[in-house]
Amino acid sequence: MSTTTTAMLSPGSPKAARPRNRALTRFRRHRLAVFGFSAIIVLVLATIVGPWFIPFDQLHIDLRYRFAPPPAGGHLFGTDQLGRDLLVRLLMAGRISLTIGFAAMLVSTAIGVLVGVTAGYYGKAIGIVLMRFVDAVLCFPSIFLLLVLAAFVHPNVLTLTLIIAATSWMEVARVVESQIRTLRERDFTKAAEMLGASGRYVMFNELLRNAVGPIIVAATLTVARAILMEAYVSFLGYGIQAPTASWENMLNNAQQYLGSAPWLAIFPGLMITLAVTSFNFVGDGLRDALDARFDLA
Amino acid sequence: MANFLISRLVQSLILFVLVSMIGFAVLHLAPGGPLSRFALVPGLSQADIARIGHEMGLDRPLPVQYWEWLSRLLVGDWGQSFRDSQPVLAVIGSRLPATLELMIAAILIAIVTGIAIGIMGAVRRYSIFDMLATVGAMIALSIPTFWFGLVTIYIFAVKLQWLPAGNRATIGGSGALLDYLHHLIAPALVLALVEVAVWSRYMRSSMLDVINQDYIRTARAKGLPERTVLLRHAFRNALLPMITLAGLELPNLLGGALVAETVFTWPGMGRLFLDSLGYRDYPVVMGILMFSAMLVLLGNLLADLLCAVADPRIRLT
Amino acid sequence: MTEHSKDKTGLRGTSILNPSRRQLLALGASAGILTWLGPQRGWVDLANAATPPTKPTGQVIVGLSQEPTVFHPLLVHIEVDEAVYFNLFSALWRVDPKGAFQPDLVAEIPTVENGGISTDGLNWHLKLKDNVKWHDGTPFTADDVKFNIELIQNPKFIAGRRAGHELVRDIKVLSPTELTWRMEKAYAPYPAILSWTFLVPKHVLEKETDINKPAFTTSPVGTGPFKWVERVPGDHITLAAHDGYHGEGPYVETLFVKYIPDLTVLYTQFQTGDIDYIGLQGITPDHYDEAKGLADRTVMPVPQPFIENIAVNTGLSVFKDKAVREALYYGMDKKSIIEQIYYGLPSETESFLPKQSWAYNPDLPKHQFDPEKAKKILDDAGWAPGSDGVRVKQGVRLEFINSTTAGNHVREQAQQLLQQNWADIGAKMNINNLPPAVMWGDYWMQSKFESAMVGIGFMIGPDPDATDFFSSRSIGAKGGSGQNTTQFQNVDVDGFLAEGAKTVDLDKRKIAYKKMQEVTRTELPYLPIFQYAMVSGVKSKLQGFTPNVNVQENCWNANTWYWAS
């Protein structure tokens, strides 16, 4: 349920600094959100820096050491079905998965905001056409979009980002549109219009700033969703191509070794769950923090 | 109201046609086609395969194929499957009950459990229960469904042997209700997992919204027992937004059912969709697409209507 | 759907004129000592053996990873559909695991000796059994045979296979159990083709208005050991014992054909006992070890006629140079692929023909894994390493894409090993795996791929005539009608193919095909890796199961299966 920000405080007023601080405090009180945020930082750092410290190359195949359980032979997390070190692959995979997650979030949020703000502000014909277009895209099962679009292109980080973004922007657009539609009727908007502000100014400087809360929440949740989408796509066979690792294609390739080499599946599974959970916690915390009603409580 | 209804119906119809056009084009233009499955069949030459393509009408220009398909659709002929030549409607109809069974079971579990957890979490905010429920919900939302399903099968079917490894019923079995239920447990639970999480989070949030309203405070001030306050006043009002949510969650549920159906070998529409898409069985894929589009459009319409009816303050675009 | 269904040609056997010598199958370690009790009874675990029951009892559940959807055996269909055909329908005769023909609908196999076939191979005289009834009680007659062949010949009918049938002329029905016909020309593979031509009832199908979409397919009628009960789409097909069956058995009351799309789940259901026989696709090599150890299960690797190879598009500039193909072959660590990644199950080969074929050439030069030699060949041919290690010659980089059907985990591992092998010699391979519908569409047929890792059955039927794959007139991308997707063009090979096809003298054909294999081994349009072995599994108590390399589906003798008590 999206939260509505009350327009008690309009942008540009001298009290603008304080709600942000209050929001920050509320966020910090939300322990799970803090945990999530820290986890994300740790993951990002680990995936960026980690591989430099590990003596194994993620691509090096050595069939003599297949399926080595952790911590045999210096492989902290064991080796996979081709004898490659699991830990370094896990970290390199993290780069791919997190990149796709963030990038898909940025793209889908950008598109969603654009469509939502335009539809919400102008309303009437433009609004109807745009929102019905959103409805039309929502009619397609996301699996259809994923599979068909994936058939057209070679799956790599860029194309997967775009494909996943193409299935996620609609939610953002909806949230934004309903927000803007409400805010449009507020006094501050009418005031700005009366003062002669152009449509674009009003849209982006007045309305959007107030709607930022739900957008941030939606964006955070989109990262989580993007990572899960990639898992879905990998399961169906269209994920990142070998030998590049992503958490999702590692998990998918490990499913048949559940009995014989469970660590192959447990670690990527844990990473995915940890990352997605963290983003969800952060999103939850932001939602609580940016909910200005609690200013009253 | 009538104007609203008519205008939305017209819009939905236009959308329906638009969706059909985009879907048809995208599907037919995607690389690969229904003839690929004959590629290495012994004794079939390229000329034979081309002839089969001609029989299927695949070498005609796309707009012609589309127009023929659409005009047949409007009179109720949804075409025939490229694979087993059965009428598409019959094919979809034969798979629908399985998916419905799964989805309804999952929804029931999700609603009952989700709402209960959500209310408890809202009422006892920041308590241990709330913490656990929140963390649990988050984790549930973060596990890839196929993974969860496979682990479930591994633990409960292979190791413990408590539950069957898939399918709707025991083949050659008695067809007893108990057998069906036994097979339904695992897939329904796996499918419901995500839904429970979503519903509990939204219910909690919605309850919180409502609980802080003035009229609740009034009810308490009136001396009404807490239970009445919660159930009669808060709950009913908190339930309202859930209706919209139900409409929005439906496509997600359908998507989740698809994964559950693959992992648990459930003969439903999701599995049919995947198989047909894999074989490029265009008539069946388009049939399911249209079916799902109808569901989504109808669901949206209903949700908007219900909200408009329930809350006259909501402006109708 | 997987690429596996496209690879198989399935049939390997003999012509009536010359039975072959075949080695018997190698069996993996199994629960008991299996004894061969002849083509009908198959392999029986004598320790557990019981005699078949007098009345059909029990049920057998067959698990397949693809779904049979076409139930008219003469219509175009895919491999998995044959699992049902073997049990619903009969053919004139069958091929047993040793490659010999066994009568099915005929009273005796027509040969030159008994006058069934004229000495020139053109005039045929068939004598049919007189006790065969269709599932609906109508007697089977020679009119049915005539109807079937004429249906296949009907240009409006979308026949699955026409080869051979189109040469039949002047079918005369002499009596309900006798008929004759004349062949346009002698065609050695025809008897084998007839062994997998399942017959459909004239009295039912002649009433149909649309011969390509008959109502017959919703409840087919045949003369096989099992009759149609029902189909639950997407789930299973139920067949019941036909007590008027003209052959041996059936000993099982109900036969279920179950569809399980996910390979891991397929194996799981075999483990838990939800299925009794794991069919198409079988058990993946990485589960073989575990499967061997399962209690009450008999697991055996079965050689198959498919050759796993790297198909190389010689139309691409980087592959035009024979030195590149040679070097790539020297740079392949075949041994590791076969022994490590495939757990030693398949067998290494240098030829495109399976070892069991009479035309197989065992004297081809053996592969050596020699990266140094590979590098030297490339150096000598002018492929110098560039700044990033990838070799270049006249502006063309030694870089190419390798594709296969997505979803085959074991094969993907082999791909990645090859990627590393070839990186070591300065060749850059990029992996781009595709879904089957895309892989086998124009991408393959019109030679738009760069290189592919595929398993191909090069023979057509039992016959080693691989014109489709090697003739310069079979290049689809150049307007030809065959499967020469590597765009291989070699005058000598064209000559050998023509020689082999025009004579029925086995020795002459053998010479031609042996020479041909020498050329393809040198030219390497396909880099051969191994000959397949599928791991099939069955519950140990199930007697009578016999793998058969000569047929497409191993449910071929389900009429002889029964449960040991």
- Main sheet: strands, sense, barrel of chain A: none
Following the backbone from N to C, one meets helices and strands of chain B in this order, namely: HHHHHHHHHHH
Distance between the termini of chain A: 19 Å
Structural Rg of chain A: 22 Å
User: Helical residue percent of chain A?
Assistant: over 70%
Percentage of residues in strands of chain B: under 5%
Q: Give the CATH class of chain A.
A: Mainly Alpha
Q: Report the CATH topology name of chain A.
A: MetI-like fold
Short description:
The complex is a heterotrimer of chains A (297), B (317) and C (565). Chain A has 297 residues and is mainly alpha-helical. Chain A is built from ten helices and no strands.
Key features of this structure:
heterotrimer; A: MetI-like fold; disordered C terminus; C: alpha+beta; eleven-stranded mixed beta sheet; 23 strands; about 20% strand
Question: Topology, pairings included?
Answer:
The complex is a heterotrimer of chains A (about 300), B (about 325) and C (about 575).
Chain A: H1 17-29, H2 31-53, H3 86-122, H4 124-139, H5 142-152, H6 157-184, H7 187-194, H8 199-235, H9 247-254, H10 263-290
Helix pairs in contact in A: 1-10, 2-3, 2-10, 3-4, 3-6, 3-8, 3-10, 4-6, 5-6, 6-8, 7-8, 8-9, 8-10, 9-10
Chain B: H1 2-29, H2 46-55, H3 62-74, H4 88-123, H5 128-142, H6 145-159, H7 177-211, H8 214-221, H9 226-263, H10 269-279, H11 282-310
Chain C: H1 4-7, E1 34-36, H2 38-41, E2 43-45, E3 59-64, H3 82-88, E4 93-95, E5 101-103, E6 123-127, H4 142-153, E7 168-175, E8 178-183, H5 190-195, H6 202-205, E9 226-232, E10 236-241, E11 254-259, H7 263-272, E12 277-283, H8 285-292, E13 297-312, H9 317-320, H10 322-330, H11 334-341, E14 347-348, H12 371-380, E15 384-385, E16 391-393, E17 396-397, E18 399-403, H13 409-424, E19 428-431, H14 436-439, H15 442-445, E20 451-456, H16 467-470, H17 491-502, H18 506-523, E21 526-539, E22 542-543, E23 562-563
Parallel strand pairs in C: 3-11, 3-12, 18-19, 18-20
Antiparallel strand pairs in C: 1-2, 4-5, 6-8, 7-8, 9-10, 10-11, 12-21, 13-20, 13-21, 14-21, 15-16, 16-17, 22-23
Helix pairs in contact in C: 10-12, 17-18
Q: Could you explain how this protein is built, in words?
A:
The complex is a heterotrimer of chains A (297), B (317) and C (565). The model of chain A is unreliable at 1-17 and 293-297 (pLDDT under 50). By secondary structure, chain A is mostly helical. Chain A is built from ten helices and no strands. Chain A has one domain (78-296): Orthogonal Bundle (MetI-like fold). Chain B has helices at residues 2-29, 46-55, 62-74, 88-123, 128-142, 145-159, 177-211, 214-221, 226-263, 269-279, 282-310. Chain B has eleven helices and no strands. In chain C, strand 9 (226-232) and strand 10 (236-241) form a beta hairpin. The longest helix of chain C has 18 residues, at 506-523. The two termini of chain C are 37 Å apart. Residues 1-33 and 38-42 of chain C have low confidence and may be disordered.
